[in-house]
Amino acid sequence: MTEKTTPLWEVFIRSRTGMAHRHxxxxxxxxxxxxxxxxxxxxxxxxEGLSIWVVPSSEIIASDPAQKDELFEPTASKIxxxxxxxxxxxxxxxx
Amino acid sequence: xxxxxxxxxDTEAGAVEDADRVAAFQARVDAEEKIEPNDWMPEGYRKTLxxxxxxxxxSEIVGMLPEGNWISRAPTLKRKAALLAKVQDExxxxxxxxxxxxxxxxxxxxxxxxxxxGKAKYSSIFNYPTLTWADIGAIGWLVDxxxxxxxxxxxxxxxxxxxxxxxxxxxxxxxxxxxxYELLLEMVRSSEEQKEMVQDALNRWWWPSLMMFGPSDTxxxxxxxxxxxxxxxxxxxELRQKFVDATVPQAHYLGLTxxxxxxxxxxxxxxxxxxxxxxxxxxxxxxGNGPCNRERLAARKxxxxxxxxxxxxxxxxxxxxxxxxxxxxxAAE
Lengths: 95, 333
Hints:
The complex is a heterodimer. Chain A is an alpha+beta fold. Chain A has two helices and three strands, in the order E-E-H-E-H. Chain A has a domain at 8-63: Phenylacetic acid degradation B (Ubiquitin-like (UB roll), Roll), CATH 3.10.20. Helix content of chain A is 18%, strand content 21%. A three-stranded antiparallel beta sheet of chain A has the order 2-1-3. The N and C termini of chain A lie far apart (67 Å). In chain B, helix 5 (133-154) runs antiparallel to helix 9. The relative contact order of chain B is 0.12. Chain A binds chain B through residues 1, 3-6, 8, 25-31, 34, 41-42, 45-46, 62, 64-65, and chain B through 36, 38-39, 85, 88-89, 92, 95-96, 99, 102, 107-109, 165, 168, 172, 308, 311-312, 314-315, 317-318, 321.
């Protein structure tokens, strides 16, 4: 068979609850319009969403898992970025 | 929705892997970290997953055939709508799973080719025919019931995309089993004749449903590796026992007899004990010689061939529109 492979699209759906669009999977489709239709059929059969984004998978730029430590490890030691780092007397009340 | 532990593990064909990396990988798995597609993984882990996930996907797609057979003959509009929705779900489940397999570096076209050429397996249960309307109820109750037993532990599988696909599938699956059981309940309450149809369906689907859990643990030396990799969480026999324990009381509630004269409840263990599965039949069906193997594959091949012009036209149209956009951009410059 001489057919070209059908492009892959990543699917993002915004749920009813007012959350941001969230990645939920992928579909193959020849073009953007068909990708939207396929995403609707595959990922919203039970009222999961109110809005769909499809993005060509080839356009996603991802961080390298090998760089995980240098990218994310430094934040582990910065405990002063969290509210619980600071002592507030109980008398002050909820803060 | 349907998986089957076929337990044909791929051996790492002479591949020498860095012992440190293998140890680091196993440590991550042991710590219950999820493995993601771009992470380093042993070749055996990748191959095992590609095979298992794609077989699972193929099972969903082939599984649409025995039920689809009854859509146009459903007895009421309610049952027809439910069956249509169920069969559409199975198609959706197949697509979630193909996507998960593709993250491991295999293309959708290759996976389809493996199914159509007969190289890839799918669950043996779909090689049995759906002879009466009661079979549609029996599939929902028993086949989806067995699948749920298999799939709930797969939600905790170490491979992230497979685990996420299983969570979606399990959320949707409960309806499949319930609609089947309700359908049977309505039949057994309707007339003696319909109750006999239901008993006949149970007689034919019971043993093939038990076979869905794959070979017995004593014949399956591959389970250990899948368990160590946390792809599997329970052995085939453990899952089969859970299924029998859950299903026997449901059969009794319907007023049916399980077609197994060795079936008895063991008060001491709290488990139902059952007779020996006909493993010759299992091997025969897996090898391609069940009642409907040829018919199922022929139907998938025909669907693929009949859809070829649609795939070609859609790609040609997208190319034409891309070319026009390009031409318009040049003209504007």
